[in-house]
Amino acid sequence: MTNTELLPTGSSLGSRGLSGLSLGIQRQTRREVERVQSRAIIAKLTEDGRAFITHTALEHVGALAALEQHLITVAPLGEARYREIVDSYTLGASAAIRRWS
User: Fold this and answer.
1) Are 76 and 37 in contact (CB under 8 A)?
2) What are the two backbone dihedrals, phi and then psi, of residue 22, each rounded to the nearest 5 degrees?
3) What confidence category does residue 46 fall into, taking pLDDT thresholds of 50, 70 and 90?
């Protein structure tokens, strides 16, 4: 991404517009544009990470819930324990997703 890609279309601050500014203002503007670009990249990576761990947690909770249901049919006396374990995992995964930012 170039420094001028974030500037509005038709803006007088495109590549040619910047050259009409003093060198100090040009440098300051380029630095600010780079900071905005950096924040945008970090925000995207953060959202990608949050989506990835959410997807993974959902897959794991689904698999654990299926296993829980199976174990309840095989050994029903352990039902409360199975539910506690799966619920604990689910709460931990939810907390991890909330912390990801």
Assistant:
1) no
2) -65, 155
3) very high
